[in-house]
Amino acid sequence: MTTYQLSHLRLLEAESLHILREVVSELERPALLFSGGKDSAVLLRLAEKAVWPQKLYIPLLHVDTGQNFPEVIEYRDATVVRAGVDIVVASVQESINSGRVADPGPTGSRNRLQSVTLLDAVARHGFDALIGGARRDEEKARAKERVFSFRDEFGQWDPRSQRPELWNLYNTRHRSGEHFRVFPLSNWTERDVWEYISEEDIPVPSIYFAHRREVYRRSDLLWAVGPWTQPAEGEDVLEATVRYRTVGDMTCTAAIESSATTVEEVLSDLTSSTVSERGASRADDRFSEAAMEDRKREGYF
């Protein structure tokens, strides 16, 4: 008797497709969060598969801090054209101009300000579900997130009032003004994501691969020299071969030293890594032990 077994990667894909099809069948106005990072690139490919042969009709939603890496914005725009999808760009600068949030100054991080901009976009467009690429292996607050994570009418997350998800059954009931954050990649790891990128030949921004860049060292992290990230007195600028493991804006995302220029070499890098990509390079998660959970309670991704 012949047996048919899916590989580990195809099992994860099947689970994600099931989750995405639950979203489009149960909720009226979903949007797909798209940062231009590797996880959202994989998520976009899965969403395209979930509705195939129909063209993807879920709009992308990008919260633009105005402090992004230029390579990521170029990749975002090229991806929108390639996929033929609509995109909503919610601007933190517009939130500052309208007085919704305070300007942190030319060198201050706008990362935390994204929550207000995101929730305003949800209200403006009437989205009842935001599909995101967060994974449980990234950070402990995300590890306790449900797949269908309920947000109240204020867009806030209460980890104590989340709904059970037994046997992959999801409760999508909600009242007007409430919405869900849905995470189809919850059970994936960073390595799974890169293996899927390799298997599906998914393009990702060039900064994920080794390149020469002017950087400076601060608090054991390597920061790119840029318009919003300048070395302080006594911090020396050097040119190094680096890459990025995660994509945030320039003020909170540090580089790592690496010579990996291909997906296969990135996978080899991961074999020797003992720290998650956020732990290795995201300053916004270092403010406190509960930095991510505090932001999520306010409406963060």
* Low-pLDDT ranges: none
The helix tally amounts to 10
Compute the separation of the termini in Å: 47 Å
Quick one: biggest sheet?
A: 6 strands, mixed
Order of helices and strands: HEHEHEHHEHEEHEEEEHHH
Average pLDDT across residues? 87
The tally of beta strands, per DSSP, is: 10
What is the molecular shape? globular
Proportion of residues in extended strands: 15-25%
Task: Characterize the structure shown.
The protein is globular and about 60 Å long. Helix 7 (190-200) packs antiparallel against helix 8 (263-271). It contains 10 helices and 10 strands. A hairpin with a 2-residue loop joins strand 7 (211-218) and strand 8. It folds into 2 domains: 8-193 and 290-298, Rossmann fold (3-Layer(aba) Sandwich); 205-285, no CATH class. By secondary structure, it is of the alpha/beta class.
Topology:
Elements: H1 8-26, E1 30-33, H2 38-51, E2 60-64, H3 70-83, E3 87-91, H4 92-97, H5 114-125, E4 129-131, H6 140-143, E5 148-151, E6 179-182, H7 190-200, E7 211-218, E8 221-224, E9 237-243, E10 256-257, H8 263-271, H9 277-281, H10 291-298
Parallel strand pairs: 1-2, 1-4, 2-3, 4-6
Antiparallel strand pairs: 5-6, 7-8, 7-9, 9-10
In short:
With 301 residues, the protein is an alpha/beta fold. It is built from ten helices and ten strands.
